[in-house]
Give the backbone structure.
Amino acid sequence: MKKKFLKLFTMIFAVALLLTGCATVSDIFDENGQPYYFEEVVHFGGQIAQIGDYLYFANGYSDSSAEEFDYGAASQTGYLARLNLGQSFTFDDDRADTNNSSPLGSEKVSDRFVGYQNQDMFVYGSYIYFTSTNTHRTDELQNDYSRVTLLRVKFNGDGLQEIYTTRYDDNSQITVQKGSDGNYYYVICAQNSEEEYQLSSIRIGDSLGENTILAENVESYAIADENSSLKNVVYAATNDDGEIEIKAVDFANGQITDYSYPQAAELTLLDRCGDVVFYSLDTDVSDVEVYQKNITQSNNFDATGRFYSDDSISNVIATEEGFAFITENGSLVYKTLSGATKVLISSDTTFDVLFEQNGWIYYSTSTQISRASVLSGEVETVVSMSSIISGTYGLSDGYIYFFAQIEQTEDDSSDSEEVDENYYLYRASLSGNGSYQLIGKSL
């Protein structure tokens, strides 16, 4: 009888493990001995998250849009990992070049593939929220890695949960913002099944909300950010009569606000910083111009408040007394609302803007990360390597995190073994001293 009871207990325990999951790594506690819990969303640039002394990160990078993309192979390097930064790095005894050697102690948190061009990561509550490529097959049993899946997992690797899967292309955007009700929301603009763009939102937190459609037939849009007092999305949409209307929708309660604009003009919403919305107007009587409007002060998107003479601008960043942005021809320009423009980077350079800090615009190319001062125009190199994935980054405790191939030394080049061409996570000091350290675990 006792043996039967033990056997039954073992079976129940095994089933319980399958239902509840087993922690992949240990829990993390704060200085008061309590599990970490984030009352607000904390974002670290998208490629990393830091919880206490632990750095959570995408170990490696693969381009899921490449023809040769193999999800299984990419997952071998691009999984979610963590490393204790509170301890000194240690390495294998035979590693002479520690800058390009993987530190010991890296732990796998989740097998889901996270390191790719559409990756985003942040912490909220007791979860890491992150994006991954879609793993659900189409009705024709084909892989569709162009879709993005939103997921979350607890800090110990337990409770992995899929939130939503959406189409995603160059005109799509997924962001997370606090709503007018104090809750946080995913705000998504992507194509629906009818190939039309629609806005939707999903409440996140201890309990998840349903995907709620906010607007359809969207032509252009400008989503609120953390500095916006009006927690809404301004959008241009085609109504049932085929006319363009300008509206704003509160992504927490769905409240709609109507805006006016010159009916004889073609209006395109371009970007937003706080409550300042940037848009272009194309009329029959003048060239296309870019305008700016503070939507707390006016509900008319008219041809006043001219900002810049160009067809379009993008990647607008508020900095110092003005804004930095990318022009139509690909230059990085700084301009105050009333002053002259200053070209920081010409269109001759292929680059991606990363972020702004203390009046410096950080940007990347395929071989280096640099920064440009919006006031002096001075340009400094932060780190230079042979091959960097441009346009992605993490930011924490004075370090910038990025993906790069392992630097090959003269000793490596003479080695007969096959060279590792994968991309792994590195970090470099924001002070720009040129040093770097491999963080990801190489094969």
Summary: The first strand starts at residue 38 and ends at 43. Helices lie at 2-20, 71-75, 410-413. The CA atoms of residues 369 and 383 lie 5 Å apart.
